């Protein structure tokens, strides 16, 4: 990941979280993700993709919340299928 990609990612992080599939995947691949949250009612292919990515990058996964609860946790007004928290604050 280049310096400009990391800078762009930092701008998009909200309160130490990357919200949504693409931003979460970037954070996980960057090595700065601490935990990924995957909604238990999200599409099974998406859940498997994120779990495999997390396994490959040694990131813990929590699947206890549904999309509505995950959206609330992220502070957004819509459902959310995946988010990741960052190690950097």
Descriptive labels:
globular, alpha+beta, 60s Ribosomal Protein L30, Chain: A, single chain, 89 residues, 4 helices, disordered N terminus
Task: Describe this protein's structure.
- With 89 residues, the chain is α+β, with helices and mostly antiparallel strands.
- The protein has one domain (3-86): Ribosomal protein L30/S12 (60s Ribosomal Protein L30, Chain: A), CATH 3.30.1330.
- Helix content is 46%, strand content 19%.
- The protein has four helices and four strands.
- It has a four-stranded mixed beta sheet with strand order 1-4-2-3, with helices on both faces.
- Strand 2, helix 3 and strand 3 (60-62) form a beta-alpha-beta unit.
- Residues 1-13 have low confidence and may be disordered.
The share of residues in extended strands comes to 15-25%
The assigned CATH architecture is: 2-Layer Sandwich
Radius of gyration: 12 Å
Oligomer: single chain
Main beta-sheet strand count, sense and barrel state: 4 strands, mixed
Order of helices and strands: HEHEHEHE
CATH topology: 60s Ribosomal Protein L30, Chain: A
Please tell me what the overall shape is.
globular
Strand order of the largest sheet: 1-4-2-3
Q: Can you identify the CATH superfamily?
A: Ribosomal protein L30/S12
Report low-confidence residues grouped into runs of 5 or more.
Answer: 1-13
């Amino acid at each position: 990941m280049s310096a400009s990609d990391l800078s762009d990612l930092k701008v998009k992080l909200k309160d130490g979280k990357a919200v949504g599939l693409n931003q979460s995947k970037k954070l996980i691949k960057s090595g700065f993700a601490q935990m990924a949250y995957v909604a238990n009612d999200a599409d099974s292919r998406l859940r498997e993709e994120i779990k495999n990515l997390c396994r490959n990058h040694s990131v813990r996964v929590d699947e206890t919340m549904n999309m509505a609860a995950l959206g609330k946790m992220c502070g957004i007004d819509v459902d959310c299928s995946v988010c990741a928290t960052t190690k950097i604050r």
